[in-house]
Amino acid sequence: MCFSRMKKLILASAILVFILITVLSLMPPKSELRIPTNDKVGHLIAYAVFSLNICLLFPQLNKKLVLLLLAVIGYGILLEFLQGFVGRSTSLYDFLANTSGVSIGFGLYLLIRKWFQNVLLKLQ
């Protein structure tokens, strides 16, 4: 797999997770889609995967990456606020799960960062 193909797959994953987070967060509560899971665990996993994708797309540990991760947290806050307009309640616990997910995704990235950078070097 070449470098640009890997980046495209990571970007596609990030976009897919972004869309899923948005749709599932803003879906009215009486929708037909029922997902049998713990709501907070779902928030945590979704935001961990999303933030890990962001870290893989922007692998340099710098101010830009920090701002992007803060933007992901801000997006989670925005979605919690917007849920009030679709008949769902906003939740501090959802916000905490979202933020914890971002932190976990970043932590996972820190654990695999060296390995990922070596993979990218080999693909170039």
Describe what you observe in this structure:
This protein is mainly alpha-helical. The relative contact order is 0.17. The chain is built from four helices and no strands. The protein is elongated and about 50 Å long. It has one domain (about 5-30, about 35-124).
Can you give me a brief rundown of this structure?
By secondary structure, the protein is mostly helical. The chain is built from 4 helices and no strands.
Map the helices and strands:
Layout: H1 3-26, H2 39-57, H3 63-82, H4 92-123
Helix pairs in contact: 1-2, 2-3, 2-4, 3-4
Question: What labels would you give this structure?
Answer:
124 residues, mainly alpha
How many beta strands in the DSSP annotation? 0
User: How does the helix and strand content classify structurally?
Assistant: mainly alpha
Percentage of helical residues? over 70%
**Intertermini distance:** 10 Å
